[in-house]
Amino acid sequence: AAMRKSRIKRTKTVCTYCGVGCSFEVWTKDRHILKIEPVVEAPVNGVSTCIKGKFGWDYVNSEERLTRPLIRKGDKFVESSWDEALDLIASKLGSIKEQYGPNSIGYIASSKCSNEENFIFQKFARAVMGSNNVDNCSRYCQSPATAGLMRTVGLGGDSGTIVDIAKSDLIIIIGANPAESHPVLATRVKRAHKLHGQKLIVADLRRNEMAERSDLHLHPKPGTDLIWLSAVTKYIIDQGWVDREFINNRVNGYDEYVKSLDMYTLEYASEVTGLTKEELIKTANMIHEASSTCVLWAMGVTQHLGGTDTSTAICNLLLVTGNFGRPGTGAYPLRGHNNVQGACDFGTMPSYFPGYEKVTDPDVRARYEKAWNVSLPAEPGYDNHQMVDGIQEGKLKAMYLFGEEMAFVDSNSNFVEEMFGKLEFFVVQDVFFSRTAQFADVILPAAPSLEKDGTFTNTEKRIQRFHKVFEPLGESKPDWMIIQEVANRMGANWNYTHPSELMAEAASLAPLFAGVSYERLEGWNSQVWPVGPDGKGTLILYEDRFAFPDGKARLYPVAWTEPFKPDDTSYDLHLNNGRILEHFHEGNMTYKSEGITHKVPGAWVEVSPELAAERGLKNGGLVRLTSPYGAVKIRVLVTENVKGNELYLPMHTQNVDEAVNRLTSSYYDLVTHTPNYKEMKVRMEVLEED
Ligand code: SF4
């Protein structure tokens, strides 16, 4: 028994699913995962986990893992050696760059990969390939929130920590479903609400678990959040409930902003949003009575034509009520992927170097040029939408994508797939043969987090270390090593031997991470950025100053953009979509984890009892949903969680015929190009069973 016990290994890791950033010990014996053990030292979750963190790891040993490079030969993929695959990539990317210029290639980074891997990838795109065409999947989710924050308070991240949220007097959750999407964070809120008298307002089309628990559930018409937020803000101003001292000392643009709210009367807001005046006044009253208010939001806000403006309206409301810079206050866009914050932070964005410094800023560029001994492109690159459109326009000829399922998660996937088919050359680097990989010319086998070292940054900007548990399966390799090998074949001479060297380089270049180091991240230690040179992090942002040169926040007037509506009125139902607890995004990991997929094997569409009665729909019946962009076949779940003509479709499935992005459009947020996934109109037909 002693022998057997000695072979059991315990390693600290960080969850690879949602942005909460739970960490725990993984107990292993050889390649077997024995259990996931949360420990009190874990800074975010302590002894909690959710089903995904606890049971979602079998995918690492899945027989479907890619273990050798694959090269397309006609319609088939054949296994190759690493040398052959890498040589082919180098020669193809080299010739395409030479023939069409550096901006004819696009680079898609990964929110599932580490900070260091994102750092080396943007360095590869910029310093080796000479292009800022590098982006990540935050373009599909929280880019509008980042933009709204940068307009008003200056930094693209949560204002405080997850522990702080629970200290708030009033939490407002808008267009988010943390009980399923961010379960461990939701547990903290539920506890504070139940035990400590914290108040909760939820604005959501769907009666999700948090809405059910809330003190006030607002159900505005789809896409009208900006209007009710502005009306509530105006009402607070009209009542004289603003924080005068805070505004006078710490905020610019108040008078102009107040003027911009003139039209947002309770009458107007009530008419457009469908909320009653009483609900609007009650919301304002609850904010007025609370000594601290914070707002949590997610895709229900951001995935609209006006996603950035609504995110801005949230910040405006918090600013006039003095709700920044204290525990329990502030703005909390909830990050989806475990490392979507880190992917943005470490520079896989077309306009930003690591740490959100603009590529257009000559001083910043000079710093990087000196360190890297190259000259760097000064113009922002294409974001991922501009890349897809660029293929259609003949400007983009090749792509290099790692750890993303873009053919499935981008909106209007029929169009995206068609464009991928037109690429002259496409490299996909992944753990699995993803649905995007079928369009590739070369597929490189990557290693998941349990097979490498690195750091992830969670939604509260906390950088945490994860450690290698197993050797990479077969011939797969950590993403950072693969990227280094490609870079070296393209003329670089890099010799990184461990991710800690990449972090050290990032810290030396980006002031936001000045004192981040692997030494300081040992064990259960973590660092929350901005991190000063002394290694001290920042748990609450904006305590003394906002992140602008004069230290003052900026109220930013915004206008409402009406949600997209197809001209054809036969698309008579509103289709909402989102996550469920058991699965994660495209499902590439959870559907390959036995403990999870047996519980929830597929997707469905939620239909209200009213609509079911009107159309003669039964639980489990099959329907076809059709939008102007495509169609899906899916089974019905009748539930009171949705109302009237509003439908809800979970976004995770392994079956492309029921994937929500067959239906979504190519329209997007006007500022950031985040698709308007939440503005879809469809029609529904009942199908006969075969
Ligand atoms: Fe992982 Fe999120 Fe669940 Fe925590 S709450 S275990 S980070 S999926």
Automatic annotation (TrEMBL):
Its cofactor is [2Fe-2S] cluster; [4Fe-4S] cluster; Mo-bis(molybdopterin guanine dinucleotide). Coiled coil: none annotated. Keywords: 2Fe-2S, 4Fe-4S, Iron, Iron-sulfur, Metal-binding, Molybdenum, Oxidoreductase, Repeat. It comes from the Bacteria. In the C-terminal section; belongs to the prokaryotic molybdopterin-containing oxidoreductase family. The keyword Flavoprotein does not apply. GO terms for molecular function: formate dehydrogenase (NAD+) activity. Residues 8-64 form the 4Fe-4S Mo/W bis-MGD-type domain. The keyword Iron applies. It comes from Paenibacillus sediminis. This is Formate dehydrogenase major subunit.
